[in-house]
Design brief:
alpha/beta, eight-stranded parallel sheet, two-stranded antiparallel sheet, 10 strands, 44% helix, 11% strand, globular
Length: 306
């Protein structure tokens, strides 16, 4: 395990899960991907989240992903593992497997089938945390779970020392600012932003960094943007933010459906020779016309200096 700082600052990429079949990891690709990301100067890795297609993978494959990732990282940065599931016991089982493999923390979003009221969500956390062998990050992702961790629920979660932070992917900057306002309750609490388009604003507002999908294929860009924003270098922040927005406006809109973001990231990694771009069903990789558009964009980005 790596030491888990409080707060955890910097870029913690939500790593894709390299696949070469319906229930088969691309093992050499996973090893290359981890080294590629770590070479960019990131502060941690988050596996089996949304970008990692976690809920679409078998429990067997999730455990293999956890074990291989922790073995490859070897404590160089903290490893955070997504354990979100509709079944309480499966979340607990994944957390225990994560601890056994050497992970540093687990991450949970609200169970995503039958929506919970906030009192039910609070009770869920009250029951879950004592069963977990690792610290817990909350993951606010209402677009996919139908339920938010409302701010009062976050405030109550801060009373539990084993809940150590929040990743906010709501895209609601007012919510994020109000979450920043809660940080005085817990000086060790970590607050990270999901949407990379909001990374600069989030850091300037007092957030601790980002869990940004584009850092899978261009980790240094997001690390440099975080550092520029944290240092208050306005000109450099604007320039790097503009490049992030070019990636968002182009790569993430090659496809027409919500899955286009993950497809785009995996396609970019495939074209860079890092890992396979096989997608968990019901999704499929980009076909050649889309791949060419991604290839052209990568060529443009390659000419940009950081």
């Amino acid at each position: 395990m790596a030491a888990l700082p409080g707060p955890l600052r910097g870029i913690v990429p939500p790593m894709v899960t390299p696949l070469r079949g319906r229930d088969e990891l691309d093992v050499p690709g996973l090893e290359r991907l981890i080294e590629h990301i770590l070479a960019g100067g990131v502060s941690g890795l988050f596996i089996l989240g949304t970008t990692g297609e976690g809920p679409s993978l078998s429990y067997r494959l999730r455990r293999e992903m956890i074990e291989r990732t922790c073995r490859q990282v070897r404590g160089r940065v903290p490893v955070l593992v997504g354990i979100t599931d509709t079944a309480f016991v499966e979340s607990v089982n994944l957390a225990r497997s994560s601890a056994d493999a050497g992970a540093d923390a687990v991450v949970v979003a609200p169970p995503y089938y039958l929506p919970e009221a906030q009192p039910e969500l609070q009770e869920y956390l009250d029951h879950l945390v004592p069963e977990l062998p690792l610290p817990l990050f909350l993951y606010n992702m209402p677009a996919l779970t139908k339920v938010s961790f409302e701010l009062e629920t976050v405030r109550r979660a801060m009373d539990n020392p084993r809940i150590v932070g929040l990743k906010d992917s709501s895209g609601n900057m007012i919510y994020f600012h109000r979450a920043v306002g809660l940080l005085h309750h817990r000086p060790d609490w970590t607050l990270l932003i999901g949407p990379e388009e909001m990374l600069a604003d989030a850091v300037l507002a007092g957030g601790h960094g980002g869990v940004n999908g584009g850092a899978n294929f261009h980790p240094r860009l997001y690390v440099e943007l975080f550092q520029a924003a944290r240092a208050g270098d306005a000109a450099r922040t604007r320039r790097l933010h503009a490049l992030v927005m070019r990636i968002s406006d182009n790569l993430y809109h090659v496809g027409r459906h919500p899955s286009a973001i993950i497809k785009g990231i995996k396609c970019a990694l495939s074209l860079l020779g890092v890992c396979d771009d096989f997608m968990a069903e019901p999704f499929h990789r980009f076909r050649e016309p889309e791949r060419q558009r991604v290839r052209d964009l990568l060529q443009e980005i390659k000419s940009e200096t950081l």
